[in-house]
């Protein structure tokens, strides 16, 4: 789908283009999962070459950030669907050419409907594609900050659940299984966020460079510098969250090991506690004829008492030494 945004009545209105002509005063062309006809129409209108989905997926920097004539091509990997169980990385291309912005995407990052909805209410008459690009990038950075804040809050809840001593009647095995699952999902989300921030940092550095024929305005450079600082700070925070998740993972595995050791210790103590009674029972179960205790009237109850006492004494000794 191809949507052309045109300034009208103090706002930037989006007009879907389905086989018809593109308005000549369009400021922003948004190609959403474009067809071949959409690509051809945008190329003829803006005088640029629209990258294919395969070209957008290339990871080398020279294929993502480059200048072709008067057009500046920038492709970034953005985190999409952070609030869903299946977040994904989405490649989005931004093309600045002769005051117009062309975006190519195969998904719906939250920044796009947010910016288009705000501009549809009110925007300055001097709006250009460069201004729209700055608004989009600021919305993307804000969204990344919101995602990291949410992840940080979730990590705090996981931490409290791990180290909370009062677990009630919750099954330890199920609890640790759920915690490990949550840590794994958050680690994957943080990894995506860090990748997205690194991609944004490269894009902002490229956008702020002085290039003949494709330079941005002074106000835009100031905004780019501010966003670069924000992205750098968010990257540091994402690294901190990643380190904390690794600590929580190690702590959870350590607690699982302690639970297993406690179970093994119980079996070891039981074997030691039952060893003396077993010895006594085995001695008096040999059935030899010449055993003095066989003719003793109180031999049986005394043997039972001896087995009980010999089992209690090791348990009391272990408790006294605080091995239990």
Automatic annotation (TrEMBL):
InterPro entries reported in the protein's UniProt record: CorA_cytoplasmic_dom, CorA_MIT, CorA_TM1_TM2, MgTranspt_CorA/ZnTranspt_ZntB
Keyword Cell membrane: yes
Membrane-spanning parts: 266-286, 298-318
Substrates-to-products reaction catalysed: Mg(2+)(in) = Mg(2+)(out)
Pfam families according to UniProt: CorA (PF01544)
Cellular compartment(s): Cell inner membrane
Predominant place of localization: membrane
The keyword Cell inner membrane belongs to this UniProt entry's keyword annotation: yes
GO MF terms held by the record: cobalt ion transmembrane transporter activity; magnesium ion transmembrane transporter activity; nickel cation transmembrane transporter activity
GO cellular component: plasma membrane
Membrane topology classification: Multi-pass membrane protein
UniProtKB keywords: Cell inner membrane, Cell membrane, Ion transport, Magnesium, Membrane, Transmembrane, Transmembrane helix, Transport
Family: Belongs to the CorA metal ion transporter (MIT) (TC 1.A.35) family.
Protein name stated in the entry: Magnesium transport protein CorA
Lineage of producing organism: Bacteria, Pseudomonadati, Pseudomonadota, Alphaproteobacteria, Hyphomicrobiales
């Amino acid at each position: 789908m191809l949507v052309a945004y045109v300034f009208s009545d103090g706002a930037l209105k989006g007009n879907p283009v389905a086989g018809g002509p593109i308005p000549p005063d369009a400021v922003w062309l948004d190609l959403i999962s474009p067809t071949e006809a959409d690509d051809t129409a945008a190329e003829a209108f803006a005088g640029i070459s629209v990258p294919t989905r395969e070209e957008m997926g290339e990871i080398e920097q020279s294929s993502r950030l480059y200048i072709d004539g008067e057009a500046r091509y920038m492709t970034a990997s953005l985190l999409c669907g952070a609030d869903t169980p299946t977040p994904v990385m989405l490649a989005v291309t931004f093309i600045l050419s002769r005051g117009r912005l062309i975006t190519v995407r195969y998904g719906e990052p939250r920044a796009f409907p947010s910016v288009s909805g705000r501009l549809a209410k009110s925007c300055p008459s001097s709006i250009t594609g460069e201004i729209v690009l700055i608004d989009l990038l600021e919305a993307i950075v804000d969204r990344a900050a919101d995602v990291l804040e949410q992840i940080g809050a979730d990590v705090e809840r996981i931490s409290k659940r791990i180290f909370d001593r009062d677990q009630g009647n919750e099954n330890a095995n199920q609890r640790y299984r759920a915690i490990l699952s949550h840590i794994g999902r958050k680690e994957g989300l943080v990894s995506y966020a860090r990748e997205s921030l690194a991609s944004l940092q490269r894009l902002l550095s490229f956008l702020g460079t002085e290039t003949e024929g494709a330079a941005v305005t002074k106000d835009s450079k100031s905004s780019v510098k501010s966003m670069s600082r924000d992205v750098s700070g968010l990257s540091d925070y994402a690294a901190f969250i990643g380190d904390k998740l690794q600590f929580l993972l190690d702590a959870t595995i350590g607690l699982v090991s302690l639970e297993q050791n406690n179970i093994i210790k119980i079996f070891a103590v039981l074997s030691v506690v039952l060893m003396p009674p077993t010895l006594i029972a085995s001695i008096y179960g040999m059935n030899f004829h010449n055993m003095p205790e066989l003719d003793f009237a109180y031999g049986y109850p005394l043997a039972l008492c001896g087995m009980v006492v010999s089992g209690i004494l090791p348990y009391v000794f272990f408790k006294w030494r605080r091995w239990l």
